[in-house]
Amino acid sequence: MLKNLEQLILSVNFKEAEKVYYNIDFDQFQNELISIAYDNSNLINYTFLHYLLMKEESAKLHNLAFSLFVNALTHIEGAYHCALYHAQRAVELTNEQDAGDLENLLFLNIVPDKLVSDQKAIEICHKILALDPANKIAKSSLKELQRKTK
Predict the structure, then answer these.
(1) For residues 62 and 67, what is the distance between their CA atoms, to the nearest angstrom?
(2) Cα–Cα distance measured from residue 49 to residue 33, given in angstroms and rounded to the nearest whole number
(3) Which residue stretches of the chain have pLDDT < 50?
């Protein structure tokens, strides 16, 4: 079934690819789509994901789009900007109550394009720590950001 997924996507047979999506575990689908995108670097992989998002918008699909853009498709001009949109949508859909979604936004503070300002990143760190006081990423980021902004 998964061996077919890449061919279905590349041939723009999204209805059949969608059946694969609904018939496997989400984590397995996510890993496979990212692997396919690494292998072929084709933007059609995102187009398929966008097709799924138009049918069923969810934080998990936005997080997958974020992952595609910051991993497999990062070499494409504007990839981090696209990742920012998807990270923001995931945060909105979870009402800022998911530390992992907030961590994705925080990550965009350290990418070359620096799409999240230091001040916004500090705010994000505080939101993460309110949800998860032991969050190591937020703690270390906050420490570094406070050092930089002094």
Answers:
(1) 9
(2) 9
(3) none
